[in-house]
Amino acid sequence: MRRVFFHKLVCIVICALAALVPGSSGAADSRQFSRSMPPSFAGLPVKDGGRCEIDALNFALFENSPMPLRRGASLALAGWAVVDVRAGTIGAARAVQVGTDPAFFVSGESYVRNGLGAALGNPALDRGGFKVERIALNIAPGSHRLFILILSGKEVLRCDTRRVLRVE
């Protein structure tokens, strides 16, 4: 049983790392972190919930938390976020929230993450992958907890990844 779980976990991590393979330019894109939620999330009530994980940071496993990063450095994240594992609900959109006071936001891109559904026990969840590619870490220095925001109907679920960035 442990061996099967380990193989599923390895598949999930490989898929996360593959999602972050840089494009031809390798430069940070023009998007920036914002103090405002992305437009599709703005004005909706926020409550804690969902299930999520960030397992890749800058093309490597996100193993240590807090993870030290230089302010202004390029940041890439990959992981998964779903509304409800049992029901197979993934949500309409995802964003990353860095910190709480102050909070910084950036939209994430959804993608099919083969093997995620099998690992979570529901094949519908393969579409629960998300990534943020090459964005400048233009946020205040300090330790910042990472959350994934999931658009679910007329509300936003804020899922705590239990990961921390230490911006220096």
State the gist of this model.
The chain is mainly β. It contains two helices and eleven strands, in the order αββββββββαβββ.
Task: Describe this protein's structure.
- This protein has 168 residues and is mostly beta strands.
- The chain contains two helices and eleven strands.
- The protein has helices at 2-19, 116-120; strands at residues 46-48, 51-57, 60-61, 67-69, 74-82, 93-98, 104-107, 109-111, 129-136, 142-152, 155-167.
- Strands 1, 4, 6, 7, 10 and 11 form a six-stranded mixed beta sheet that branches. Strands 3-2-5-9-8 form a five-stranded antiparallel beta sheet, covered by helices on one side.
- A hairpin with a 5-residue loop joins strand 6 and strand 7 (104-107).
- Residues 2-11 and 20-29 have low confidence and may be disordered.
Largest sheet: 6 strands, mixed
Distance between the termini: 42 Å
The amount of helix comes to 10-25%
The chain-level mean pLDDT equals 84
Q: Which structural class fits the helix and strand makeup?
A: mainly beta
Count every beta strand, where a strand is a DSSP E run of 2 or more residues.
11
Shape: globular
Summarize the helices and strands and which ones pair or pack.
Elements: H1 2-19, E1 46-48, E2 51-57, E3 60-61, E4 67-69, E5 74-82, E6 93-98, E7 104-107, E8 109-111, H2 116-120, E9 129-136, E10 142-152, E11 155-167
